[in-house]
Amino acid sequence: MATQPKFTASSDPTGLGVIDPIETRHFTVGTDSPVDPSEVEPDRFAFPVATACRIRATRISLSYMVPIDVRTPEGDHLASIDLPTTREFSGGEYLLELHSPIKTYLRTTGPLTIDATDDGIEIAFDGERAVEVGARSYHSAPAATITVPDDPVATMEAVTAFASALKTTSPERSWPTLRGHPPEVERGDELVIPDELNAPDTGITIAVPPEYGYVYTVAPLAYYLGAEVVPGETAHLAAESGVDRRLGDDVAAVGESVEAVLKRVFLLDCVTRTEGLYPDDLHERDVLETETDLDFESLYGASPADRLAAYLAVSAEAIAAIDSPWHRVTHIEGDPGPEAVELLPYVVNDLSLIAVKDASDEEWSPTETQQQTGDALEEFVRSPGLRRSPGRNSGLEDTDCERETADEPARHAARGVPGVGGYMPLPETDALEQAWIGDRTPVQGTKLLRDAFGRDAASSDDGIVEIRVVCNDDAMREELDATTEIYRDRDDLRVNLSCEFDVTTDELRALLAEESAMFHFIGHIDGPGFECSDGVLDAETLDEANAKIVLLNGCRSHDQGVELVETGARAAVVSLGDLWNEGAVEVGETLARLLHYGFSVGHAMRLVREHTSLGRDYVVVGDPGIAFAQCKSNLPTLFSLSQSSAGGSNRLSITPSSYVKRDFGVGSTIRPHLPSIEKHYVALGESEGVEISRASLTETFENDYAPFIMDGELVWSDEWTERR
């Protein structure tokens, strides 16, 4: 199986196709004439690349705006191209770093002219030139495995070794590609840490009581800081630079301190790194320069311990001025044991916060009324004569009554009835996404399943995204027709879509076994399994399931989705209760659009939950970071539109909100392609809003496809003009 990027000559249009088989990414470097790529050594490039080739061209074009850093052959920064502009470069050698869906570098000689517009980029030479092209995947996987006995102190040593994955301890570690995936952890009889896992000596220590809850909570901070985790009577963060900070007296308090310190250090690293490889004009730096007198040049070269001391001395007011919601918080069931240890490297790799709730926390205990309601509901769902709600699972027409009762188990759980039918409400948080590790299933966010992580990813040698839609009920053809239109080719995304109707159990078994990026099932699913034309298929009987993401848009599909993940799928979107057809169609269409645009399944479901009538009855099981489509702008962006407070009815206020992905993770930056926005922003939540005319907005998104929030509703750029 191919695991590295590959190059192919393309004739329509002419150019060089760059393909990442693991992430199913395709990127085209257009040329003015056909090319014949020849292999060259990857070490010709100052930055790491996995494969490289040489082509000849007079002109190179990119079909959409891709930020470019122009560098010397040694990697020194010369210029950034991320706004509509024309730049000329004289004779000499140049290394062009393309921030594209596959990391791509062009090495060539000048003179050359770069003409960048919102619609694309053209790089013109004064004659035919040899151009060397290097590429690497954004894919990151564990490099080794640590064996850990069921002992919190041994787990501390494993967590300390996570930092061996860091490629640097400078502020550049805030870039996702310079962190690296922590080693896997498996439970065993004794502690075994491979010799090659050498954690950096940063002079930073985190001491916590020898209990799993504390160790899990500090793991993301320890990894990012390169800190040694050691046993202690109380939780402390210490450094050889004189830092000695108490983190709290219980697990919840330690979690709050870890969140504050990690966000502070991380955001300040993002600002300080502008002194290094990528001197972006960063919004957060402008803010801090008005709030503090930090010497970023000195901080960039300081030791990790000294830099930590300086960061902790920054006022809370200054940090609040650049603070933003974190991308994910992962909750672990109260009073945890060793069961979560094997998921820990994957949670830490995404730099998720970890919150451990004490099992006795009152927030997690039902009131007397809730308990009575929960007991009654549990008796209802266990009843042998359980009434089937009209709607998707019965084929009857929608009624107002159905809308009130169809998803009752999930609705009661969301109202604070813990444990009904095995469901668990999660506490409120300002994180963009939530995940859960525990026996029960959350009623929002993602239930993490170990089987979803660490598998060899399915590959696509041609970079084509395989999508399969199966509809097993004629009454649900509306969703089949709608999603067929949504799952279409884009100019930067090649899709192979297959649609099947009324399949048998054997046909469905075979379809689930085939490799695909997305498997969308429309039909009846109940306790026994998938209803097919000749019977019922129970996912428990499958030998394999090879889809990245599965959407099971049928009633009570939770258990079947869990089985599919345990059999090979990476993530499954499942329902917790009965569904009515109109609401399920809305969810199916909305989720298909968000995933096809480029959102990860976890973030997509957050938006589905907020902006569809039935979204609260669905959750994700498996890995929330999985996505099947590249996003043209690299980072999926949601735009909020409202009437401008000044300028009349023809003016609008637009605010972009970015959502990180695993290939463009936390620490990436974004410059929204909107008029008057010239700054870069750390890609966490909202960027600064701007005023824009309706005509300018239409022109900006004329050839683009993006989601908007208008009047509280989720709409798309090809729809918003109808609402003017």
Automatic annotation (TrEMBL):
<protein>
    <recommendedName>
        <fullName>CHAT domain-containing protein</fullName>
    </recommendedName>
</protein>
<feature type="region of interest" description="Disordered">
    <location>
        <begin position="360"/>
        <end position="424"/>
    </location>
</feature>
<feature type="compositionally biased region" description="Basic and acidic residues">
    <location>
        <begin position="402"/>
        <end position="411"/>
    </location>
</feature>
